[in-house]
Amino acid sequence: MELDIVSLSRLQFAMTAMYHFLFVPLTLGLSVLVATMETVYVMTDRPIWRQMTKFWGTLFGINFVLGVATGITMEFQFGMNWSYYSHYVGDIFGAPLAIEGLMAFFLEATFVGLFFFGWDKLSKVGHLTATWCVALGSNFSALWILIANGWMQNPVGSVFNPETMRMEVESFYDVLFNPVAQDKFVHTVSAGYVTAALFVLGVSAFYLLRGRHVALARRSIAVAASFGLASALSVVVLGDESGYTTTEHQKMKLASIEAMWETEPAPADFTLFGIPDQEARETRYAIRIPYVMGLIGTRSLTETMPGIEELVARNEQRIRSGILAFDALKTIRADRDQTPAEVRTTFEQHGRDLGHALLLLRYVDDPREATSAQIEEAAWDTVPWVLPIFFSFRIMVGLGFFFIGLTAYFFWKASFRNLEVPRFALWVAVLSIPLPWIAAEMGWFVAEYGRQPWSVEGILPTAVAVSHLSVTEVALTIAGFVLFYSVLFVIEMALMIKYIRKGPFQDVEAVKEWEARRRTMMPPAAAPSAPLGATQPAE
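and the corresponding structure tokens:
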């Protein structure tokens, strides 16, 4: 890969986003799990649930702080590395991010303080309200960010103004209820819930293997397994909906995910495995499942899904149409109010393809001077590198079905078998802790890399959106970010491991007294048989 300013800027933002997304899923899911545990505490007044809330809340707090630190840096990159992008679409993109900062972030940040320091200052219901506000704030924060990101994938509710050379809001309602944004939100949030559920499940399984904190671990597994199963099923269902939406708005991304080089007869096959060859434009050693992709992508038996080559041919025509729009735009910019009506009509007819003409700026200073060969090359630039997208998607999907199986198993054991789990299964839960992060990062990679070469789908190419910086300047900031984020990641891992090893250290005496009272009130014959040193069932 050529390390030019565009490639380095893309690398920097991708690296920052990937680092940030190490913390986001756990924050989303743990906030809801902690709020659920405190709800049980308020309803039952059992100190064990208060202890669980504080313990998992401590781990949430560590992760929350690191998520905020990395997220703020991403905000500054829009003005630092992507200044023309910020100018071009700031009217639309800036609004959701501003609302996220004003409403969600401050809601989240304000009440997180009450969560940690308000136990002895607020009533039970008051503190529970603060905890749920933290959970709502975390999820609202994700909502507004994903509305902004969804607009980049499907730029609805906006129009290009040739006078200002900017995209402007035409309907904020359409921006807010963008189907791509809504699908991305519920899918991403559900993935965060799965991440938190498997984290709690794995840590709790570790405690059972060590025979420590058994009461807390058993109850945590019961909550995490049920929450994780519902979330994992939701991820699959919502992922299917997201795929269908992609078929409508990002056909090239879906064709790349499937490595579908040629348009297949309806309904298209699903490629379970293969090795995409970009140069030969074929998928070697392909193992296909008949009809599945067509049913998923189009939800019909008759509608075809266009292949990469057909989409490239369409984009070539859009580039030629965009050149007409570019020529009309130049006239409008020069003549202003004296622009002939037929020129404005030409721009209105071809304006939606203006972004495709901008793809030519990689090769010529003026798209109107492009040769047929350059137009063809620019059309093929709309095809991302297929191989990493192809495998990333399948890793994500495979892990998703594994999560369903794992959480279903523990849910069954917790609900009907008094959590009688063999040690092998507990070790599987422990070793599965990092897998949701892998799945989440793969999904994010597919979503973002899959839409290249566009910063805003069909409107603004990535190569045009960057700031005018030197390669040295961007390379130095990349080095600084790598160092800074790596230090933060090491700090977080050290703190998380420290407090996991330490275990629940708050309300220990209250829990012991409650357990002692419970044992004295329970007849000996009623005492449950519990494996792995456990003394009571999950409640």
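(Above: one complete record from the training split.) The radius of gyration is 26 Å.
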